[in-house]
Description:
This protein is of the alpha/beta class. The chain has a domain at 92-311: Metal-dependent hydrolases (TIM Barrel), CATH 3.20.20. Helix content is 38%, strand content 15%. The chain has helices at 21-30, 51-55, 60-80, 100-110, 132-142, 146-164, 190-206, 215-218, 228-236, 260-267, 299-302, and strands spanning 3-4, 35-36, 38-41, 89-93, 115-118, 122-123, 126-127, 168-169, 209-213, 240-244, 271-277, 292-298. The strands form 4 sheets. It has a 6-stranded parallel beta sheet. β4, α4 and β5 form a beta-alpha-beta unit. It is globular and about 55 Å long. It starts with a strand and ends in a 14-residue tail after the last helix.
Amino acid sequence: MPFSHHSHSGQFCPGHARDSLEDVVMAAISKRMQVLAMTEHMPRHDQDRYPEEIDAGLTLASQFNNESSYFAEASRLREKYSQQIELPIGFEGEWIRPESADLVQRSIATHRYDFFIGSVHHVHTIPIDYDSKMYQQARQISGGSDGKLFEDYFDAQLAMLKALKPPVVGHLDLIRLKSDNPNGSFKAMPEVWQRILRNLDYISSYGGTLEINTAGLRKGMNEPYPKLEICQAALKRKLQFCLSDDSHGVDHVATNYDRLLPFLDEAGITSLTYIRRGGVSQGKVDSRFPYLDAEDVALSELRSHIFWNSLETPVH
């Protein structure tokens, strides 16, 4: 699949990713990808900094400056490589506390983004995908079990969905990454499964797109985000899907895409959506983003794309 709607670079996400943004773009071009959405992390409040960001003296003010530099460079790259690849400019939103919405709205109002990804990386303001120690801290606050933490995670996700209505919902079941059984079935936890279905219903109600994210495979799980059972439930709700590698450097671009076709076939997914920057006069996907456009493509059509030639040697 020659699309990714989720990427990061070391240039604008230091300590968390690698390589310049332009190098990431060039890696996507070299693999004959059609779309690489640039989606660096949005600014976060000072109390929400990661340990390495505290050590580096990162502040909210410096993050605002970084965001401006990112948008300027992304705009330059979009123009420079416009004949070779679609480069929508977005960001990955955060939901840590209700005040997080203020920062998302500031980003939308300050820069002419094409879209954004709505993600949850924190529960009880604690990162749940950073390391096992922090995951366990969040789990203890929830009551000491994965199931209770999962419930709180999907409740936080619903709050994010209602407040922000993100055009793309990122790695919907990220919460399983550091859990005791990351490959287990959510259906075995009825209270959790009910929340997942509730959230899918809400995404469907406002027309959001669900991201299928191969980072889960890169991190040792046997399915991408979200799991097969969630994709099948989403299909029943007529949800659309887009693809992402969640790359954090050139070596992540299109990783594990060779494993996607069997997964999509098993899920019953026959078409995918991809984002492009359309003309302002075209039909709007989201009124906040006047240039946002989306198109569907049949999986049968994608199978013949030249992109697959770049994956003759699978990368895991």
